[in-house]
Amino acid sequence: MHLTITEKILRSHCDDNNAVAGDFILADIDKCLANDITAPIAIEVFEKIIEGTDHSLFDNTKIILTPDHFTPNKDVASAEQCEILRNFAYKYDVINYFEVGRGGIEHCLIPEQGLVKPGDVFIGADSHTCTYGALGAFSTGVGSTDLGSAMVLGKCWLKIPESIKFIFSGHLNKWVSGKDLILYTIGKIGVDGATYKAMEFTGEIIKGLSMANRFTMCNMAIEAGAKNGIITPDNITEDYMKKVSGDQYNIFNSDNKAEYSDIIEIDCTRVEPQVAFPSLPENAKPISEVNNMRIEIDQSIIGSCTNGRIEDLRIAANILKNQKINHKIRCIVIPGTQNIYLQALKEGLIEIFIDAGAIVSTPTCGPCLGGYMGILGAGERAISTTNRNFMGRMGHVESEVYLSSPAIASASAVKGYITSPEYI
Amino acid sequence: MIGTVIRYNIKDINTDLIIPARYLTKTDPDYLAQHCMEDLDSKFTQKLKINNYSILVAGSNFGCGSSREQAPIAIKAAGIKCIIAPSFARIFFRNSINIGLPILEFNEIENFNTDDTLEIRLDEGIIKNKKISIEYRVKKIPPFLQEIISADGLINYTKKIIGKFL
Questions:
Q1: By CA distance, what is A149's nearest residue in B?
Q2: Which of A62, A353, A357, B137 is the most exposed place for a label (fewest CB within 10 A)?
């Protein structure tokens, strides 16, 4: 039997040695995660399940809680939600609870803290949990009830997904990043093009991509409806793991004759930097088409679990250095974690952003989901390095979000309309 | 189950439309229900109440986007007993199963119009449109998931497991 990396990881985490794509399993999980939006319901579920039994957390070291969406608390209701996480963390001795000021955006934070490793099964009550597939883990988003149940059992029901293999070949054009590759891919297959499936990213181009770019690509697998995105670990993965964790891990890879529901080849030589138009991530257009449209913007967001890593901030700073943000534009830069913030400070990036006229926020998911820290009013338009551009996503239902890489978001902040960094 | 249809012939109805993030600071189902679908149709909850609609029919990729369980919770608390769509986003799908809200995959949603009365037999995978007296066969919910639904959701299912195995 020839298997994909996803099938192998899941088979190694359940008691069915013959499990393949299509089978339902109760998978053993290595870690599970929730945030200030999803944990309150998960905690309520957890308490209901254990009530009247002598059960508790299956393992207090394997639960991760990150108050990151509406923090620092945006209002009284958010403060109350965060308090639920905090009280729970102290009551059950959840050691991986990341208080405001000592953490950051979950999907930037967790790899940085070495809390996920190749070969793991990781579930998170957040749809972008698929990010960690970049490390060769099976990682997927679930709901709050799933998480409440998993906190007791250490297990989660899953259907082993079929996989689609993406082969990225050719060479990367100037300014083309992981964000452009994934927007291009979603543009090609659609927002439901990989529903219930694994997106396995392979090919020469992937082998040459940095971890930051790989995280960005796997992060947006959910925007094509996928269960998980995944990249086979290589020396780039191993170098990254050496920096963040001393733990042992298992490397899995797909058999040459593994079965795929589809194989899609992408010649990167033909891929330009991309911009996804409102109101779906699949509305991707090449920048050469967009340049001529002169789409004026009101706001530029650089950050998020998709593009809030130090590499992203370096690209932005490189473009914004000795430049001024257009007088009509608000540019908001959000480092993904406190460590990234500190690193950016040491490298002088924060100074560049402030000199240019951008505002630098503490780590938060805030504006991406229309929470706070950059809400759009009616008729306003943003270019953003985040991952969703649904109707009303960043604020008023009549506002618009265009998705791009940090390079395009930075260049557009300078010009005042969506444009290529070539013109800076 | 017998109920009346409210149909939105729209694809990709996402979790931001089902329950916008601005309401995610509270988890009370009734509060969430009040704001359910309001960015898509500001009269949604009102229509449900006045017309006693309880079956939601919608376009493909229903529930795409976020993992927020508040989305199916809001729909269920608003009075919807079953959702029918050609396809569902996967986290929305599992969240619905987990909270005991049946959802059915069916391609030809044009057979069910707003105000039609449907009889749904989940265990048989049958939907009958009582207005035109035609029965449709839908994809049955797999046995593993039916176990969760028949336990009235994942909480009770998990309680059973810990009673049995651990």
A1: B158
A2: B137
Q: Does A127 touch chain B (CB under 8 A)?
A: yes
Measured at the CA of A216, the angle between CA A211 and CA A221, to 5 degrees, comes to 125
Q: Alpha carbon B56 to chain centroid distance?
A: 7
pTM attached to this predicted model: 0.97
How far, CA to CA in Å, does A108 sit from each of A143, A332, B70, B75?
Answer: 20, 18, 24, 32
| Cα gap A118→A192, rounded to integer Å | 27
Query: In this predicted complex, what is the ipTM?
Result: 0.95
Please count the other Cβ atoms lying within 10 Å of the Cβ belonging to residue B144: 14
Sign of CA dihedral A181, A183, A189, A192: positive
Burial class (CB in 10 A: 0-12, 13-18, 19+), B132: exposed
Domains of chain A: 5-265 (3.30.499.10), 275-423 (3.30.499.10)
d(CA A284, CA A278): 9
Cβ neighbours of residue A307 closer than 8 Å, sequence gap 6 or more: A179, A216, A385, A386, A405, A406
* Contact of B152 with B163, CB cutoff 8 Å: no
User: In angstroms, what separates the C-alpha of B37 from chain A's closest C-alpha?
Assistant: 12
Whether chain B has a CB inside 8 Å of the CB on A62: the answer is no
**Beta-strand pair A262-267/A274-276:** unpaired
Structural domains present in chain B: 2-141 (3.20.19.10)
* pLDDT tens track, chain A, 424 positions: 899 999 999 999 999 999 999 999 999 999 999 999 999 999 999 999 999 999 999 999 999 999 999 999 999 999 999 999 999 999 999 999 999 999 999 999 999 999 999 999 999 999 999 999 999 999 999 999 999 999 999 999 999 999 999 999 999 999 999 999 999 999 999 999 999 999 999 999 999 999 999 999 999 999 999 999 999 999 999 999 999 999 999 999 999 999 999 999 999 999 999 999 999 999 999 999 999 999 999 999 999 999 999 999 999 999 999 999 999 999 999 999 999 999 999 999 999 999 999 999 999 999 999 999 999 999 999 999 999 999 999 999 999 999 999 999 999 999 999 999 999 9
What is the secondary structure of A305-340 as a DSSP string? HHH-SHHHHHHHHHHHTT----TT-EEEEE-SBHHH
A96: closest CA of chain B, how far (Å): 21
Measured between beta carbons, which residues in chain B are less than 8 angstroms from residue A124? 67
Decide: A182 and A273 in contact? Cβ < 8 Å: no
- How far apart, in whole angstroms, are the C-alpha atoms of residue B30 and residue B70? 11
Query: B6: which 2 tokens?
Result: 């409210």
Q: Say yes or no: B45 contacts chain A, CB-CB below 8 A.
A: no
Structure tokens at B39: 């960015």
Largest CA distance in chain B: 51
